[in-house]
Write a structure and sequence with these properties.
This protein is an alpha/beta fold and 416 residues long. The protein contains 14 helices and 24 strands. 31% of the residues lie in helices and 25% in strands. Bound molecules: ligand EPZ.
């Protein structure tokens, strides 16, 4: 199994081009099922997760071809409505095919995703929303099954702000009979980007960027021809690496507003941040300062940056308090950071981080995508060598990470 060997203690310097966003590409890939035809998606990151989603689409009968970062998906020949457990268990977002299959074929058999490294991640809002739109859904042997479904417009209010449930219902509603109103929706840039892609294909959606969407169903959509937005979490992860290594990194091909909450926290910890139209330069301080963070849905501080921010605060002057309000037990990185000398006390969904002067290289294990990113950043700042095991987690969401970090002066190698 691949590992990363990192020799730390060097400031990272230079320019890095940010890839397309995994969490924006996956729903757009699902949306290709809504319209039979050849779809063109540009700036698609080459990741394990986009490969997995391509595999799901192929199993449904689509033809999928990558040419560098251009993804062509031909959904004319889609002839199956089953998304198998073997694939869905490896990537929860596979459930995004459910709404489009019900909308286009009136049938679907999609495995329930099951849990993940950090606790239960229910999909009840996806199911209750689709049921409100008239979908009779059964759970059979771990599969969500729907037959003879004719989706119709409805008003659906989400108890919790959910990215997944929002995109699921948006895709179900664009071809439904009548008008759907979605209330308390997620505002993440991936959601807005999906809305813009659907509108460009002929969908009728009002209220994008607000917590209330009104969607008038149409009879058909045109194939997608779109460019995936840049990955704000990848960008913010590099920014955090600059903060921890006294580095200076220019992030190119970004939308600064998409990760403003993370940039503001890094500024509060002492970074200098220069925002351009499509670039951001982050200069790390001699030593970061302690900050308090509470994760929230966009535009609040993203839970997908919680682990990386805990790593920054592990080296800060003072004590930081970091609360995750989205996932209460997303802290599997904490014991691994402690192996590198971090002092972090967990109290429920709150991490109290007492900053230390330095971290030390150690053998550590990646447990999920963002936890592994925090270990990479900690290793880049640490004294000595770190060996990170199970980096397949990283490959799910960071494209060519060691190549990009190497170009910034990092001593990093993939070994097995
Ligand atoms: C998306 O997951 C992202 N994944 C996650 O990023 C991210 O952590 C999360 O949004 C929050 O920002 C993708 O976009 C593929 P949610 P999702 O539905 O859609 C509860 C990464 O690192 N909830 O917004 O699964 C849920 O338990 C990944 O790239 C329900 O209760 O998250 C959570 O507390 C990890 N019932 C909250 O809502 C539901 O039916 C937000 O979850 C759905 C969600």
């Amino acid at each position: 199994m691949d590992k990363l060997r990192i020799s730390g203690g060097r400031p990272l310097e230079g320019t890095v081009r940010i890839s397309g966003a995994k969490n924006a590409a996956l729903p757009v890939m699902a949306a290709t099922l809504l319209a039979p035809g050849v779809h063109r998606l540009r700036n698609v990151p080459r990741l394990r997760d986009t490969q997995t989603f391509a595999r799901v689409l192929e199993l449904l009968g689509a033809k999928v071809a990558f040419e560098d970062h251009l993804l062509m998906i031909d959904t004319l020949g889609v002839n199956s409505v089953e998304a198998p457990y073997e694939l869905v268990k490896t990537m929860r977002a596979s459930i995004y095919v459910l709404g489009p299959l019900l909308a286009r074929f009136g049938r679907a058999r999609v495995s329930l995703p099951g849990g993940c490294a950090w606790g239960p991640r229910p999909v009840n809002l996806h199911l209750t929303g689709l049921q409100a739109m008239g979908a009779a859904l059964d759970i059979e042997h771990g599969y969500i099954v729907g037959n003879n479904v004719k989706l119709k417009g409805a008003t659906v209010g989400f108890d919790v702000v959910s990215v997944g449930a929002t995109v699921q219902l948006m895709m179900a509603a664009v071809l439904a009979d009548g008008q759907t109103v979605l209330e308390n929706v997620a505002l993440e840039p991936d959601v807005t980007a999906l809305g813009e892609v659907l509108i460009a294909c002929g969908a009728r959606i009002e209220g994008l960027g607000s917590r209330r969407l009104t969607i008038q169903g149409v009879s058909a959509l045109r194939p997608i021809d779109a460019t995936i937005i840049p990955d704000r979490i990848e960008a913010a992860t590099f920014a955090a690496a600059a903060a921890m290594t006294r580095g200076k990194i220019r992030l190119e091909g970004v939308v600064p507003d998409h990760f403003e909450a993370a940039l503001r926290k890094l500024e509060e910890s002492g970074c200098a941040v220069q925002r351009g139209a499509d670039s951001v330069t982050v200069t790390g301080p001699a030593r970061p300062q302690a900050v308090n963070v509470v994760t929230q849905p966009f535009p609040g501080f993203p839970t997908d940056m919680q682990a990386q921010m805990i790593a920054v605060c592990a080296l800060a002057g003072g004590t930081s308090v970091i609360e995750d309000t989205i996932y209460f037990d997303r802290f599997t990185h904490v014991p691994e950071l402690a192996r590198m000398g971090a002092r972090i006390e967990l109290k429920g969904n709150v991490a109290v981080v007492k900053g230390v002067d330095r971290l030390y290289g150690a053998q550590v294990m990646a447990t999920d995508l963002r936890a592994s990113a925090s270990l990479v950043n900690a290793a880049l700042a640490a004294q000595g060598e770190t060996l990170i095991d199970r980096i397949y987690h990283l490959d799910r969401g960071y494209e060519a990470l060691e190549k990009k970090l190497g170009a910034l002066g990092a001593q990093i190698r993939r070994v097995n």
